[in-house]
TrEMBL record:
UniProt keyword Kinase, yes or no: no
Cofactor entry: Fe cation
Record domain Alkylglycerol monooxygenase C-terminal: where: 313-400
Naturally occurring in which organism (per UniProt): Rhipidura dahli
Protein topology in the membrane: Multi-pass membrane protein
Catalysed reaction, written as an equation: 1-O-(1,2-saturated-alkyl)-sn-glycerol + (6R)-L-erythro-5,6,7,8-tetrahydrobiopterin + O2 = a 1-(1-hydroxyalkyl)-sn-glycerol + (6R)-L-erythro-6,7-dihydrobiopterin + H2O
Segments crossing the lipid bilayer: 343-361, 367-386
Function as written in the Swiss-Prot or TrEMBL entry: Glyceryl-ether monooxygenase that cleaves the O-alkyl bond of ether lipids. Ether lipids are essential components of brain membranes.
Protein name: Alkylglycerol monooxygenase
Length: 400
């Protein structure tokens, strides 16, 4: 969208571009599957990893159901109380300056999220997939947004909130399409833009990929600050020490538990602080970001975590996950008409369901018990009228 079509006087006038883009997300995911099948005769991902990524995406958005965006709240507060001067909201120069400002702020936040352990504990959720596809773009942390907001505040001293709100969404939306393997390199654009090739490197656990290519929309920041790396050897995706789980709750919480345990096991007060604020590879006597030689070597024979699950269980999980997506989107559409108790009940059921699906995809023995409990809860609350589909034919299916 050019500046003239995406400039607004007030924040209230700014469209929710992310929600409007959901049909395009679905379309592009379908195209990625088709192109991947044509190119390689294989699909770009797995059912278990795809459900896990989408579950993490839904979890990351649930706080927005209850609270306003901390990015905008903090930005508007600084703008109202501390701005130094005001750039015109309808100027193309303001629009382009904000594009650069938001992307540079993202670069700074993204880099620090890899270099500070407590921030990495949140951001690593996005990197935990061993697949690399458009589902991975939706794999987000619940906690990350509560640390990223502060990097945008310097812009609030002179850039109107409405312009910032537009570019905050644009920067996020741009990053969706670069999570794919079906697009190779894009010629001269590789010098300026963050592309699928550059971002594949960022998601790699090969030693040459670690802590590289932090840009959101632009790759120029990495070239300027020495964090750029071109795609070379075949990239192996995921964390250097894979978590081997599809449980979205565990994926959100285990890194924090690891920091907690390491904090108490590490002697010395300064060392304990270093566990929190230095890099995830740090240890006593090591450099701030750890030792590069301790990064596991990639052999090319790495096998992604992929427990055997019967085909019928995959089909079951897909159908029930689709039901949860329906309930989630209906919750977003009707939030203003629901009581707080009903909203909290629906959120609880969504979280319970996503956790159950994760255990099913791992074929855990306790998954069956949790799934029976979940289905009984669904029957009870549906009969009491607390659940409703946005599609009438699904309401009939739920009754059945």
């Amino acid at each position: 969208l050019p500046p003239g079509e995406s400039s607004f006087r007030t924040v209230e006038e700014v469209p929710d571009y992310v929600d409007k883009s959901i049909p395009f997300f679905i379309t592009f995911i379908g195209l990625e599957f088709a192109v991947s099948w044509i190119q390689k005769r294989k699909l770009p991902g797995r059912i278990n990893d795809g459900i896990s990524s989408l579950s993490l995406g839904i979890l990351s958005r649930l706080p927005d159901v209850l609270f306003r965006s901390i990015d905008l709240i903090s930005y508007i507060y600084v703008w109202n109380n501390y701005r130094l001067f005001e750039l015109p909201w309808d100027s193309p120069w303001t629009w382009y300056l904000t594009l650069l400002g938001v992307d540079f702020a993202y670069y700074c936040f993204h880099r620090i999220s890899h270099e500070v352990n407590i921030l990495w504990a949140a951001h690593q959720v996005h990197h935990s997939s061993e697949d690399y596809n458009l589902f991975t773009a939706l794999r987000q942390s619940v906690l990350q947004k509560y640390t990223s907001w502060m990097f945008n505040l310097p812009m609030a001293l002179f850039i109107p909130p409405s312009v910032f709100a537009v570019h905050l969404q644009f920067n996020l939306l741009y990053q969706f399409w670069i999570h794919t393997e079906v697009i190779s390199k894009l010629g001269p654009l590789e010098w300026i833009l963050n592309t699928p090739s550059h971002h594949r490197v960022h998601h790699g656990r090969n030693p040459y990929c670690i802590d590289k290519n932090y840009g959101g929309t632009l790759i120029i920041w990495d070239r300027i600050f020495g964090t750029f790396e071109a795609e070379d050897d075949k990239v192996v995706y995921g964390l250097t020490h894979p978590v081997n789980s599809f449980d979205p709750i565990m994926l959100q919480l285990r890194p924090l538990a690891h920091i907690w345990n390491t904090f108490w096991a590490t002697p010395g007060f300064c060392n304990k602080l270093s566990v929190i604020f230095k890099g995830p590879g740090w240890g006593p006597g090591k450099p701030r970001l750890g030792l590069p030689e301790e990064i596991p070597v990639i052999t090319g024979k790495e096998v992604p975590f992929n427990p055997h699950v019967p085909a019928y269980l995959n089909c079951y999980a897909l159908v029930h996950f689709a039901i949860i997506v329906d309930l989630y989107t209906e919750l977003l559409a009707s939030i203003s008409m629901l009581s707080q108790g009903t909203v909290l009940l629906r959120i609880f059921f969504i979280i319970l369901s996503l956790a159950s699906f994760g255990l099913l995809m791992e074929n855990k023995s306790k998954a069956g018990i949790l799934e029976i409990i979940r289905c009984l809860v669904f029957i009870g609350v549906y009969k009491l009228g607390y659940f409703k589909s946005q599609f009438s034919f699904l309401d009939y299916a739920y009754e059945v």
